[in-house]
Amino acid sequence: MNSFLQRLAAGGYRITPQRRLILEVLQQGARHQTAEDICASLQQKEPNISLGTVYRNLNILISLGLVTGVDFKDGRIRYELNDSHHHHLVCLNCGNTVEFPGCNLEETLGDIIGRTRFKITGHILEVFGYCRACQEPDGR
Amino acid sequence: MNSFLQRLAAGGYRITPQRRLILEVLQQGARHQTAEDICASLQQKEPNISLGTVYRNLNILISLGLVTGVDFKDGRIRYELNDSHHHHLVCLNCGNTVEFPGCNLEETLGDIIGRTRFKITGHILEVFGYCRACQEPDGR
DNA sequence: GCTATAATTAATAACCGTTCTTATTTAGGA
DNA sequence: TCCTAAATAAGAACGGTTATTAATTATAGC
Ligand SMILES: [Mn+2]
Ligand SMILES: [Mn+2]
Ligand SMILES: [Zn+2]
Ligand SMILES: [Zn+2]
After folding, report:
1. Which of A12, A90, B73, B92 sits between 20 and 30 A of B20, alpha carbons compared?
2. Same-domain pairing of A69 and A23
């Protein structure tokens, strides 16, 4: 069985067709889909699936650490499997993104954070700009 | 005259009592206030000020680069004067924050970004965790 | 200083992504 | 196969933010 489904069950959650489909879309569909995107995909196979079900289960998956939500500053959350830690370069015009891995942020900030005695649980980092295709000749 | 007011005027905007007061609260009040916090402060001096006016003007101030909005993951935007570039350590329990300056993120990411040919306009970085007072003995 | 007028405001409705409610259905253990 | 707590579909509610509009006002030009 899919290891994501195993982890759902290990968390005390039931394996429902809706949850199988949500994980399927996250694994095989496009990256960085909104809840509505995901719901629309699911409805092709299962027309009666509800947007509320998608949100509820995405939040469960996030709480289990299987999924992460990212904010590209357009007013809606994008969801992706929580595989390898990375961040994004986001084009403010067309919305295209470039992922960049190799984040050493928490070690870089180690000294500053150490002095605060905070117990760190995570961080968000997104870089914004204009991709090559969206840059005007005048440099915007 | 206040240099922020000068920059407002230079941007083609009128100097209204409401705008004076908003800048006053941002300069002299607490950091990281929500629009509602700011509105409540203003209403002590000017009872009829409208929340819409606060939002509209905050967005103008942001577009002029005088103010920045930050997201502490509690569903509302916090506003602060755009003085020196910095980021935050945010306690997920009590909401307390620590600011840390000295961000060299864009030079650190220079190589990666350079290859993408993006024209960078900014970035967001927030670190989350639990402050010392909010950490349980068991380490949460 | 006055006036004309476009900018701004107060009040309030609308928006919209997300969460909540509830009656019904269902996954999974006994 | 049953039982029951968990999950779902449908749709209402929520809450932060934005849009609308009639009235007010800052300011440029005289
Ligand atoms: Mn990603
Ligand atoms: Mn700050
Ligand atoms: Zn990172
Ligand atoms: Zn920075």
Report:
1. B73
2. yes
